[in-house]
Amino acid sequence: MKKLAAISLVLAMTAASLAGCGSTANTAAPAESEAAETPAATTEETTDTSADTVAADGKVYNIGICQLVQHEALDAATQGFQDALTKLLGEANVKFDLQNASGDSATCATIVNQFVSSDVDLILANATAPLQAAAAATNEIPILGTSITDYATALSIDDWTGVTGTNISGTSDLAPLDQQADMLHELFPDAKNVGILYCSAEPNSAYQSQTIQGYLKDYGYECTEYTFADSNDIASVVNNAIATSDVLYIPTDNTAASNTTIIQNICQPAGIPIIAGEEGICSGCGVATLSISYYDLGYKTGEMAYEILVNGADVSQTAVEFAPNVTKKYNAANCEALGITVPDDYVAIE
To answer: 241 and 339 in one domain?
Structure first.
């Protein structure tokens, strides 16, 4: 009897000890990411209580991320998204399956189909091809896009109201095209022919080209489109473009962004300047751009994901968001090489 009593006492103490450890793990404060300091401080003030609640219930959210290709802008958007959710949910409560499609649309479809089979809680589609692949793969799992120029074009929506009405929402990386045209005219008022260079496989690039041409023609420019199918014919198309253009405009285009070295090596020796639709392209081969922060854009997308996953926001009625700020930026080395002086309100790309 004494032995039985002793054994019972040990078992009771062990159970109490394990229960105490479990309680400590479930109430731990969420981990914070240093990179997440970029967004406004109001994020911390409005979400800390909810984040603690999520950590306490022990739910682990599985997020599938399909990124079209590796380059600076898309990488920053993905990082911002991950930092936001890690901060808001707690590091122990979110798992990311990050897959890169290496620029191939078919690979995007394979990746998102795997996410659907795994029944992830949410899919992040970073760029247009992943968004289209995700839209084709599921109408149930919430999908958020980022680095998408125009959702109506990407999803073939005729009557655009700002929401998709489906399981899709997200953020747009479109900087105001009228202001980009203003920038081109500010720097090159005497130019006559503007060549617009983009990948024909990217519908959002075609949208940007068609839209900005209206603004450029208002300034009296003659505009000609030069399109390449993929990276294999960029060099020949760029050579054709510089033969008849005074300045080139490259919209936000993933294929161009991945091949700026080729473009730079052709355009700079020929003395042809480039206005770029985003900072990554400008850093590689441009002279100036109207820049947004892709990190901030991704962070905003992560906040949207939190609202959908935790607070029950209806993704079908969640409005597509845009970058809150734009900045005039210039490539100091390229401007110096081409003898271009920019106004004082431009900021050098670091």
So the answer is: yes
